[in-house]
Write a structure and sequence with these properties.
Residues 36-166 form the ATPase AAA-3 domain. This protein has 306 residues and is of the alpha/beta class. It has helices at 2-13, 21-32, 47-57, 73-77, 111-123, 158-161, 175-184, 188-191, 200-211, 217-231, 242-258, 266-276, 291-300, and strands at residues 37-40, 62-66, 78-83, 88-93, 100-104, 125-128, 131-134, 140-145, 166-168, 236-238, 282-283. It contains 13 helices and eleven strands. A five-stranded parallel beta sheet has the order 2-5-8-1-9, covered by helices on one side.
């Protein structure tokens, strides 16, 4: 059932996002791993359509935040407003209190606002005027940033990037897929008519089942070999953190679950590491242009456990 439902969702959404099956699958793996996703891509390639599609097909609440230089933490989290009739302050929740949030152009918001958002992502709760409010379950943030535009942006520091389970790009559609888009026009309006394939309870049950996927000693050692190879690499100033190690495990468990297994194999890690590892590393300046090649070389040189 688990494998078929993932395939069913990918197949269904690919009619709205032609040629983007890989991006849809990676987004779902991140979601079911209880992580968050960073999409670095050019405008107009389907990031908003992807977020709406995932929310609708999973039957979850959806909110959107547009990153701007004047965006305040209270615009995201919410604010306490004084109620004259009750003579007390009432909390008015912000868009962060949705299940799925698209934060468009996160690097256009100031570091203070980024910090408030990323704290909510990490803690799954927010504190306003001394009161703590739990965020809804499940909770999933899709943040986007434009890799080309630098003017008026505040790049996410490495410590903040580490909070995203995966960093992906959607990329241009193939020529054939784009031809179909041109002939058929935008299908975003039809997204709102999608009937959910899962209930909220079923989603939370799947997320709980994924945590029970078995990690053998050999797999744990294989992951640690990769982690320590990044920490000792001559190309890097800083390797993977412990949060990075846990991210590899979480995503590998989810991939194994959706392939019908209750245990991780090395192929789960090799399939997903290009999206989990590179954005967490601090490269020496002279090697910045060779990130993917260096990460691939590090991982490929680690012996696969038998």
């Amino acid at each position: 059932m688990s494998y078929s439902i993932l395939k069913k969702i990918v197949s269904y959404l690919s009619t709205y996002l032609q040629g983007k099956e890989r991006a849809i699958e990676l987004t779902l793996i991140t979601f079911f791993s209880r992580g968050h996703l960073l999409i670095e891509d050019l405008p107009g390639l389907g990031k908003t359509t992807l977020a709406i599609g995932i929310a609708k097909i999973l039957g979850l609440d959806y909110g959107r935040i547009q990153g701007t230089s004047d965006l305040l933490p209270s615009d995201i989290i919410g604010v306490s407003v004084f109620n004259k009739e009750k003579s007390q302050f009432e909390f008015k929740p912000g868009p962060i209190f949705n299940n799925i949030i698209l934060v468009d152009e996160i690097n256009r918001s100031t570091p203070k606002t980024q910090s408030a958002l990323l704290e909510a992502m990490g803690e799954k709760q927010v504190t306003v005027d001394g009161n703590t409010y739990k965020l809804p379950k499940p909770f999933f943030v899709i943040a986007t940033q434009n890799p080309v535009e630098q003017y008026g942006t505040f790049p996410l520091p490495e410590s903040q990037l580490d909070r995203f389970l995966m960093k992906i790009s959607i990329g241009y559609p193939s020529r054939e897929a784009e031809k179909e888009i041109i002939k058929g026009g935008s299908k975003r309006e039809k997204l709102y008519e999608i009937k959910p394939l899962l209930t909220k309870d079923e989603i939370l049950k799947i997320q709980d089942e994924i945590t029970k996927v078995y990690v053998s000693d050999k797999i744990a050692d294989y992951i640690l070999d990769i982690v320590w190879a990044t920490r000792e690499s001559k190309y890097l100033e800083a390797g993977l953190s412990t949060r990075g190690s846990l991210a590899i495990v979480s995503a590998a468990k989810t991939n194994a679950y959706f392939e019908g297994r209750d245990y991780i194999i090395p192929e789960d890690i090799k399939k997903l590491y290009p999206y989990i590892i590179p954005h967490r590393l601090v490269f020496k300046p002279e090697f910045e242009a060779q990130k993917q090649e260096i990460v691939k070389w590090i991982v490929e040189n680690i012996p696969i456990p038998l």
